[in-house]
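Why does residue order matter? Because the sequence determines the fold. Keep that principle in mind as you read this record.
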Amino acid sequence: MSTSLQRNGRVVILGIYVTDLTFRAGRMPLIGETIAGTAFAMGPGGKGSNQAVAAARAGAEVVFCTRIGNDAFGEIARATWAAEGITARASVVEGVSTGAAHIFVDDNTGMNAIIVASGAAGTMEAADVDAIEADIAAARVFVTQLEQPLAAARRGLEVARRHGVITVFNPAPALPLDDDIFPLCDYITPNETEATALTGVPIANADDARRAADVLLAKGVGAVIVTLGEGGALLHSASQSILVPAYHCGRVVETAGAGDGFTGGFAAALARGDDAVSALRFGCALAGISVTRPGTAPSMPMLDEVNRVLNQPAEAASPLS
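Structure:
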């Protein structure tokens, strides 16, 4: 675990914790059908919590804000954060369960399909952010997503902006958003599906991603990062457009959590002072390692593992024409 790391840069993350219930099988069952699975595992998950674990293992000082229930899954959450050296601001909601996620993993490809029930974290409000304003003000980077209510995410971005903190918005799962949220985002990190949902631009390659990113820049985003899975990640802003190839670190075992790993790693790198392109490479390398391991939060690598990948010869990032 990461408790012995030398911490460098503070990241505050607002999001949800869920306990992942992961089933592996050769294919998805049809409606009304029962099939035999090959494996089952239970472990910590949730986009926000996964990002917090990734950032903590990458060397950041992490504060994570959420809500949990007073139940066994809540105990798993607290034990996870303590083991990772994460400072938890987790309100306990009586009478509401801690969140859970059903994850199907295809044995043949490692690809996944997920159902998330946010539970207690789904009751989060803007007041939860107001309660941690001092934490945000003292941070270098603030991160949020859309698994918790939009009002809480928006308030987090507003508070971070007010205090001059770098904002990273992971718009997942994709939801309809008012245009006034985009100027609050120094960085927005959708995958291809989410970028298409936000912009209406179908994405099949990096050039499509650039066109979608232009739509988001026009709405006021500072810089857009479109994660492209095996295609790497595109950083697109008014001043640069850089495609960083994916890092292939071994056989793909499970892709669930890779996007969370990227966002957490990117935030940790920004928090310690890396420039955007270096942070992009760091996030890609972290995600490249995570897909070679099962689980979401448990798949996140340690800082020295990511650095070893980055120190190996790799294809240089290529500017788009």
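The mean pLDDT is 92.
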